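A quick word before the example. In earlier lectures we treated sequence and structure as two separate objects. From today on, think of them as two lines of the same record. Here is HK97 gp10 family phage protein written that way.
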Amino acid sequence: MGNFIGLVIPPDVQRKWEKAIRDLGEEARKEAVNVIKDTVMDLRTRIVQKTPVEKGRLQQSLQEPSAVEIKERDLEGRVFTNVEYAPRVEYQFCKRHGIKHLMFTRSMEEMRPKFLNRLEKAYRELMRK
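And the structure line, produced from the sequence above:
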């Protein structure tokens, strides 16, 4: 499976979307999936930008189309890599740069509010129709 970071709709927001999907059907599901896809692509871009490059294998693995998975039924999106040393780059102190890189963790923290805002905006627009 590899190392992954993903966006999952929180339970309180999930309940709103479940209601919208029941009331509005496929239109609401498509809108939620579009928000997830857009956000996951932004998340992947941020992770790639924050990934340190020595030989570029980790960064390249994140740029591959297979590094993104969208589960439309579960309203879930993931960015992941099968590069075996990714956890070390993420969590261990890097002597060369003097930091823990935390490129997945920090990118997710940065994207979470934007993701929730996008979902809320899409939900409000759907409810106006």
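Notice the following. The chain has five helices and three strands. We will return to this example when we discuss secondary structure assignment.
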